[in-house]
Amino acid sequence: MNTTLAFVSTLAATxxxxxxxxxxxxxxxxxxxxxxxxxxxxxxxxxxxxxxxxDVMSRTFVVGADSGLANVVVYIKGGLEGKAFPxxxxxALIDQKGCMYExxxxxxxxxxTFQLQNSDPVMHNIxxxxxxxxxFNFAQATQGQINDKVFDKPELGVKLACSVHPWMVAYLSVxxxxxxxxxxxxxxxxxxxxxxxxxxxxxxxxxxxxxxxxVSQEIEVxxxxxxxxxxxxxx
Amino acid sequence: MNLPTQxxxxxxxxxxxxxxxxxxxxxxxxxxLVTSKGVGMAxxxxxxxxxxxxxxxPITTWFTDGIFHEHTHRLVATWVGILVVALTRWLxxxxxxxxxxxxxxxxxxxxxxxxxxGPDWKGAGYFLSGIGGVVLLAGMVWIRxxxxxxxxxxxxxxxxxxxxxxxxxxGLRVVLDRQIVADTTLGTVFGLVHACLGQGFFxxxxxxxxxxxxxxxxLGKGMNGIRTNALNWLLPATTGVIFLQLVLGALMRHQxxxxxxxxxxxxxxxxxxxxxxxxxxxxxxxxxxxxSVTAFQIFLQMFHRIGAVTIVILVVSSFVSVRKNAVGxxxxxxxxxxxxxxxxxxxxxxxxxxxxxxxDIATAHVxxxxxxxxxxxxxxxxxxxxxxxxxxxxxxxxEPAAMFARPFVR
Lengths: 235, 410
Known about the structure:
By secondary structure, chain A is mainly beta.
């Protein structure tokens, strides 16, 4: 009897995993972005310059294969009203390595802890300048230092910067639900999670194009699956 | 044999005033460098530095990239503060002792009281009591020197007040960096006022040095027939426009609008750039830096450009007027210097754009701006002194009755 129950439970769990949502798609850029430029200050810096054998390039627009645009936050903007989701337990990580932030663009859910790590043998300070959340500015003097932080309110494109090394900038989007992703170097994204079937509004946000340049589209999730394609336009 | 025009102590006071003005210029340059490099918040606390007493910051931390500029700015500012307190005492003579003692004691007590308020106020407490200690010491200096003739003691007290307010503004710029009131970041506002007061403070110290200089009593003597009436309005008006230009420049720097337009002499390819939303989007999408510009920032830079052209015209007019009306006076070489500075300043402004706001170029632009303002102010003072006899219908320049006529150093 117990064996049968365990078998049924396993089957049920497998079914839930199989129904776990997956929204896939690609973000492309229409228009010609300004070419990436070498950040001269990195190489000129006595401490940070030695971490890089080649030029460090600006990452404002990273465009890959077939005009795929990287670093775009794609998230469910509408269709989940009235539903509450617990913040993911796993912590997001923003590292400072070679006097650059990695990743350049990331996203967390409101209430989700994110870690700020200094992998450099150089002091950094991290200044967050959100408009809706509470900002901070503190130093990480020792290599390997990690500090946990949480933003409570949804807010797109919170800027993180190092005042000691002014070229160091990263953007963190804080979202209302756990259904989001950041596009990869070729513009591809995968949003994973147990999203019930239904209609949703999906939005693609790029920090340089701002809210005015964000693009929304309606999608329908069937059997936990949906696809979407976005084209962000450069004026 | 040339007889000295001043007593020995007067010459040393003049040299000391020049030293104070030069240190202040260095401080203005360092402040400019901090803003140019964008490292104003590299030391996120004040008056402590990373929790340390400012003078006890570990040297390895001090010599870390942007921290070096910001922390050195703070240390030099402290040094200038000490110099100014001593200058106030020297200019005010023994009569300055009592007010210095009272102020010093009040600051010392206030500092110790802050220490008792709580751990958050500890740094401020030490800082204030430190300032109080320096002021108190200046008040305890036993030398019973006579005060200088007016208005020098008053100018000394003005500098004394300005340096303390300036220090406080610099600190508030850091402490209130993220405080937003009416959509305005307080840190930016305090940074702007700090930058403008810094320029005014430098001019004040230059004026004190001029009034103490051996040349000052001789100005006007034997300069019969000099027609400085035109200069009496042209020089202060031009100096005023330069100050407004410096305020605009500070506003641009603290708004991070120095590169709101990235081409020169044209602006986004035209004489006057479009600022409609569509054009702004286009400009911003084509920027590879992390900033976005607004119409306000573009207007700021355009007004700064118009200001630059206006100043060049005004300084050239002043130069011509000086050559015409004040031949044989120190105004002529002062006019030459002013013209040279303004031409250099114009090209440094252009170079700031052409070099993508290279920190050294932008800082040189701030430094030459300060020197241009000071030169204008000193020329205005000198012209006024020379002009007094003419304005009063006197032929000679030796006995004008106004306050500027007497040598200041007793």
